[in-house]
């Protein structure tokens, strides 16, 4: 699936789940990916599938 589409889906899922605006989820997923040295697309796919914990794991 197109990574940009998945990222947009993830933003919608996270915004609905957390009650925040549409730009904040992207900031959070980017930060999470960077801090854990993960690909943005990987985390966006997990978020779009609702396969992420409600509370993020602690930063290393």
Automatic annotation (TrEMBL):
Q: Where is this region: Disordered?
A: 33-60
Q: What is this protein called?
A: ANTAR domain-containing protein
UniProt-listed InterPro entries:
ANTAR, WH-like_DNA-bd_sf
Q: Which GO terms describe its molecular function?
A: RNA binding
What's the superkingdom here? Bacteria
Known Pfam families for this protein?
ANTAR (PF03861)
Start and end residues of each ANTAR domain: 1-48
Query: Do you know which Gene3D superfamilies this protein is assigned to?
Result: Winged helix-like DNA-binding domain superfamily/Winged helix DNA-binding domain
């Amino acid at each position: 699936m197109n990574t940009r589409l998945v990222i947009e889906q993830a933003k919608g899922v996270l915004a609905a789940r957390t009650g925040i605006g549409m730009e904040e989820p992207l900031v959070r997923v980017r930060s999470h990916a960077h801090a854990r040295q993960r690909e943005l697309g990987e985390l966006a796919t997990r978020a779009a599938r609702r396969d992420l914990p409600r509370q993020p794991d602690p930063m290393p």
